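subagent[fold] <- orchestrator: predict structure for attached chain, return tokens only, no commentary.
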Amino acid sequence: MSRRRRVYEGKAKILYEGPEPGTLIQHFKDDATAFNAQKKDTIDGKGVLNNRISEYIFTRLNEIGIPTHFIRSLNMREQLVREVEIIPVEVVVRNIAAGSICKRMGLEEGTPLPRSIIEFFYKKDELNDPMISEEHITAFGWATPQEIDDMMALTLRINDYLTGLFYGVGIKLVDFKVEFGRLFEGDQMRILLADEISPDNCRLWDVETNKKLDKDRFRQDLGGMVDAYQEVARRLGILFENDPDNRPGPTLVKSD
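subagent[fold] -> orchestrator:
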């Protein structure tokens, strides 16, 4: 078997050269990181669950006309995606106060926000992903005003859809982070949703109990991270009690 060429490796995923020009293979790792990788661990099975959840969400978003880089699932841990030029801006939408906005604004965690708030962060780990404004984005040439408008419009559509999707299965969408990329097709360029959407980059709380079903279980040493991710997958209808992949810990997936 020929060795695949690694294009990029991040904290949670590896990108390999795809089978066709303009494609990549996105591989989900079991690595868990928080606070810009100051806290690290390996959570067996996390990559498989994130792959399946993100595949499900991106498929649904494609169906409602949100342009994404997702093409299809390849196996339990990998997806075929379009190769895009990533815009170095993380777009965060907040519906309920949690995380850094509580510290910055003096808000109590769980406080409903007056409306959904969009924030931008510079995608730069060594700088701890600083919060930025539209002025920073345009001044440094990371994106044009039109691209910012496109990203904001897509993010709000994604928020509207996911809020309803998750609420329908008893989950509050507290906040989430998305990334976008440019797809060049001849003389045309389109903005596409890239990266992933999973409990790694969403805050998801149970509607009734406010139990956290996301990466805050790792950040805050709450334990039960894989169980929480499995619960999200079960509620979305992509993991069942008798599913052979629904097994605890190390037996969920075996990797080299």
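orchestrator: received. Logging for downstream: The two ends are 15 Å apart (CA to CA). DSSP finds six helices and 14 strands in the chain.
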